[in-house]
Design brief:
The protein has 60 residues and is mainly α. The chain has one domain. 73% of the residues lie in helices and 0% in strands. Helix 1 runs antiparallel to helix 3.
Length: 60
């Protein structure tokens, strides 16, 4: 259940981090450090969710 929630949440965080330039927020031209952190966190969340869904709650 947690994995199924982490995948879309991670994708949303990653898309928001990438779309910051489109809405004009941020001081940096191009890809800034906060965007890098947001994209990394979003991708990690989606990856962790995928692992949780794939293992189906079985213990290690």
């Amino acid at each position: 259940m947690l994995g199924a929630a982490l995948i879309p949440a991670g994708i949303i965080v990653a898309v928001l981090a990438l779309s910051v330039d489109l809405i004009g927020a941020g001081r940096w031209n191009g890809f800034g450090p906060v965007q890098t952190i947001g994209l990394s966190v979003g991708l990690f969340m989606a990856l962790a969710g995928g692992v949780l869904v794939r293992t189906n709650g079985r213990p290690a």
